[in-house]
Amino acid sequence: MSPRAAEIVILTKDPRPGRVKTRLAAAVGAEAAAGLHRALAAHTVRWALGAGAPVRVALDGDLDGIFALSLRALGARVTPQRGEALGDRLRLAWGGARRTLFLGTDCPTAAADWLREGLGAPDPVALGPSEDGGYWTISIEADDPMAWAARAAALFDGVPWSTPAVYAETSARCAAAGLPVHTLPLCYDIDELQDLQRLAVDPRCPPELRGPVAAALRGGAPLDPTEG
Questions:
Q1: Which residues pair with 137 in a beta bridge?
Q2: Among 42, 75, 191, 216, fewest CB within 10 Å belongs to which?
Q3: In what order do the strands lie in the sheet with 6-13?
Q4: What CATH number should be reported for the domain holding residue 188?
């Protein structure tokens, strides 16, 4: 794929205590949750870069801050995140690529091959379902701005975000719009304490996250994920 043929866009926030992973923070503390968020974001960038397409982080935060600089040092572009609702943020994050694969930073057990599969999907949409009823990725093909606007409106406007209905609703919208869907493997998010405990014993947990996961479970500050 040429650089303009595809792009991976990661939507994330600055790791400010009390602003990220708030459900997990209720169990492990705001500082530990923010540290884990930082580690997950760094892992996601590294993972995405291995898929062979340019990686851009749409950041809700300080573009000149330490977090943004660390993500650039890993090899990602960092641009501002725009919009309020998630659907608006996804729609506005499109950068003109023919195939755009969107990611969050909450599914560290997803395999690298899954991203390549999503980028090379034979259908105009690829969806990766998550166990909570949402999706961990959506990959959309659009040939021009008008095509993107139409597909973004069909797939993002009015979706009941942060509910167990997101994946089913999006699948139904694809069917209604005549957009065949390629389904990627199932994954689970790291949102609650039980998810973090599950990740700690999951053999698929990336090695560089084992220290931060253990530290978060102790309520301490994870190791710097940019080291080593």
A1: 103, 128
A2: 75
A3: 77-80, 55-60, 6-13, 99-103, 135-141, 125-129, 181-183
A4: 3.90.550.10
